[in-house]
Amino acid sequence: MPSWQDFQPFIITGLALGGVYALSGVGMVVLYRATGVLNLAFGAVGAMGALIAWEIVNNTTWPDGVGYLVCVLFGGVITLLYGVLFGPPLAARDALVKATATLGLALILLGAMSWIWSDKARSMVLPTTNWSYDLGTVLVNWTQILALLLGIVVTIGTGAFLRYTSLGTAMRALANDREITATLGVPVRRVEAAAWLGSGLISGAAGLLLSNLVGLDAATLTFLVISSLAAALIARLESITVTLIAGIVVGLVTALVTPFLSISQYRDMAPFVLAIVALLFLSRHRVVSVSRGAH
Fold first, then answer.
1. Could you give the domains of the chain?
2. What mean pLDDT is predicted for residues 135-147?
3. How far apart are the C-alpha atoms of 102 and 45, rounded to whole Å?
């Protein structure tokens, strides 16, 4: 049985990863609520943005900040273009068809990354990684702190945006009923474009952070969307607050499994297990509540 000291570094790692999973989950939930699209290309977009940033930082004379900014903007632009071009034709299709279409985008980006950058190992070191301090016996850097804080801040900011702004109100109206919202004169295409853009910017930021926290590998970053998707599914693609909590829990559980050598090789299954358990529990609770209401 690992000791408490063995777990301490993984708690820090888990909180940092959980913050990014929560950040990504919020971006996925908001986009789904506004457009009905479950964006499975979220991780691939962030991964390609991070590789472009790496290219700028290491192979150009531009300031490093330009590379980081391009990473975030790339996420916003590519996601917005996809939403503008394919969002309208897919608007009336089933949710499964919409999700499968974004999976196609993910595969295209993954293939492009493999072709352009090959599979050579790379690393992205953000300036915040060099600023660290001791927390007891554990060394904590500011990238880890930033990852957790950004997840919390974006969740709070998104909640306030959806509640107190006209654009946010329009997004919530779209989530409730697209057709009625359109008949009320709401510019549906513009609102959906804003959702695509916002989600894309978040994917770029998440990709940049993850490239530093787990390494700059196209396939790894692309499929880390699974952990974010698990957080969103636990929240039933509805509550961003629950998404935040679920993302942090997924990050912590995945990291804390590592010291257990007998099961550490199965830690990638943690998001699936947590999502399945949560969905089964919530479904059972809902059935019980409905049954009681019927009486």
1. 4-290 (1.10.3470)
2. 86
3. 11
